[in-house]
Design goal:
With 137 residues, this protein is α/β, with parallel strands linked by helices. The protein has one domain: Oxidized Rhodanese, domain 1 (3-Layer(aba) Sandwich). Helix content is 28%, strand content 15%. Helix 4 links the parallel strand 5 and strand 6. InterPro entries: Rhodanese-like_dom (IPR001763), Rhodanese-like_dom_sf (IPR036873), STR4-like (IPR044240). It holds the Pfam family Rhodanese.
Length: 137
Amino acid sequence: MSYAGDISPEQAWQMLENDSEAVLVDVRTQAEWNYVGVPDISSLGKRTVFVEWVGFPTGARNADFLNDLAAAGIKPGQPLVFLCRSGQRSIGSAQLATSAGLGPAYNVLDGFEGAIDDQGHRGHRGWRALGLPWRQS
């Protein structure tokens, strides 16, 4: 099933800033949240919702994904902004949320770090590279 569409990290920030109902859902793994960093939307008076799309280290899809969203307080009609590392896992997340009647659901292009470049590195694109707020634990 289709989702509402792909948006840039800047568009995601604007949506989160301008729509009090919009929710940022980071679907990366616990390991990524701990070691790479997380978006920080606290200046907007909001919190990021963290729900793994796949588990680490197995890579198995989270069968409780929709239940985890509900447990985090996600309700039908709320705009959902899904973010992963590079904008790939978040597509599946947005599609599943849409099929379950949630959303509108959006995918953040380039995710938190962007795709791997020609030198085999990440971090030149995405949320963090654009200087949007983030933190590391």
